[in-house]
Design brief:
28% helix, TIM Barrel, alpha/beta, 11 helices, single chain, 26% strand
């Protein structure tokens, strides 16, 4: 396979913007990004003069492949709302690679996403990080499991109040979280005692699934919009020493200084929606800017299909219109999203040795008139307009 030279473009690497630069791809990886580089003999040259190149965009929180486009609502596979504590469930076992949202994502330059269980349960199950080129599921996977999904606020309360079981209130949701981790701690202690004695111990898939979360090996990603729910997520996570992120963070701007002190990682969105429920009443495009001004690590998400995944660049553009600097807005859907997911050593920026996941744009990426001309995943063209 010959090297590819993407020449003459304005290139946003994730760290800086370079004029008249060349991106060199070799064997599915980025070899280098340089200004004034001459192509090697026999290489494939793609003329990008007047175009813009960015890393492939990353959406850190979606439900692609489980809330499938064109499917009836009762066929959604992201929420198994029978028991509010369901950490044993795996999105890996529900992903549908033929969801028509995947080619849509590629048309928007989105090359990587974390797809998660929904927010109907207090603990909803295990997510995965995938490349967005449809394929055999295991070949799409970047990391599985990638996180344990949890939820506070209106969603689990609404689901289980109808079923007349816990949680009926925010207190009930917090209790169920704490009780689950206490039971997992007890399970681990009994397992260790049985192993020490050489005794048989019956496996419990529910408790087993929570052990990596307790050990800090699996990130606890908590759906929460309102400021009190955000605080509860932090409180419970700190009590058990969990590695956690705040997902949605709709009222994060109201407590941004506190979040910065807690060194919280936040995924902000979906902001390109109406206020469909009470806990969205303070939704604003100012949130990313205020978090940035206070030093909170954040990324921007669509929560697809709430906002179609191909419009991730539009979300970044609207955050920029609200005062977030343009390069910061681009980082929020590339390198910051990769850091949120813990995969920044592999994707999110155009640097030597990283996956050649790339989008070529007709104009500046945050210009509403800009469109993706080509999308690359692992150095191969997977979309062309």
């Amino acid at each position: 396979m010959s090297k590819k030279y993407l020449t003459g473009a304005t290139v946003f690497t994730g760290k800086e913007t370079l004029k008249n630069a060349t991106v060199v791809i070799d064997g599915g990886k980025i070899e280098k990004v340089e200004v004034g580089l001459t192509a090697a003999p026999g290489a494939e040259i793609i003329d990008c003069a007047g175009k813009f190149i960015t890393p492939g965009l990353i959406d850190a929180h979606v439900h692609i492949g489980t809330y499938n486009e064109d499917f009836p609502e009762h066929m959604e596979d992201a929420n198994d709302m029978v028991d509010p504590i369901a950490p044993q469930l795996r999105i890996l076992d529900a992903l549908y690679p033929d969801d028509t949202a995947f080619p849509d994502a590629l048309s928007g330059g989105v090359t990587c996403a974390q797809t998660l269980p929904g927010s109907g349960n207090v603990i909803g199950g295990q997510g995965i990080i995938i490349k967005t080129k449809p394929d055999i599921v295991e070949r799409m996977v970047v990391e599985a499991p990638s996180a344990m999904k949890a939820a506070l606020g209106e969603n689990p309360v609404r689901v289980y109040k109808e079923k007349k079981k816990l949680p009926n209130t925010r207190m009930g949701s917090a209790y169920l979280m704490r009780d689950s981790f206490v039971r997992a701690q007890n399970y681990r202690a009994k397992l260790a005692a049985a192993e020490k004695k050489g005794e048989h111990f019956d496996r419990d898939l529910i408790m087993e699934a929570l052990l990596p979360v307790l050990d800090g090996k699996l990130t606890y990603r908590v759906h929460c919009h309102r400021s009190d729910d955000i605080q509860t997520a932090v409180r419970v996570s700190e009590e058990f020493g969990l590695k956690y992120t705040i997902e949605h963070c709709t009222e994060g701007h109201k407590i941004a200084e506190w979040l910065a002190g807690k060194k919280v990682f936040a995924a902000v969105g979906p902001t390109l929606t109406g206020r469909s429920k009470i806990e969205l009443r303070n939704k604003t495009w100012d949130t990313p800017r205020i978090l940035w001004e206070n030093g909170v690590h954040f990324c921007i998400i669509t929560d697809h299909p709430v906002v179609p995944l191909e419009h991730l660049s539009v979300c970044a553009s609207l955050a920029s219109r609200a005062g977030l600097p343009e390069e910061e807005a681009l980082r929020a859907v590339t390198v910051y999203a990769a850091e949120h997911l813990g995969i920044e050593s592999r994707v999110g920026s155009l640097e030597a040795g990283k996956d050649a996941d790339i989008a070529i744009w007709s104009r500046e990426p945050l210009d509403s008139r800009s469109k993706v001309l080509k999308t690359f995943i692992n150095g191969e063209v997977v979309y062309e307009s």
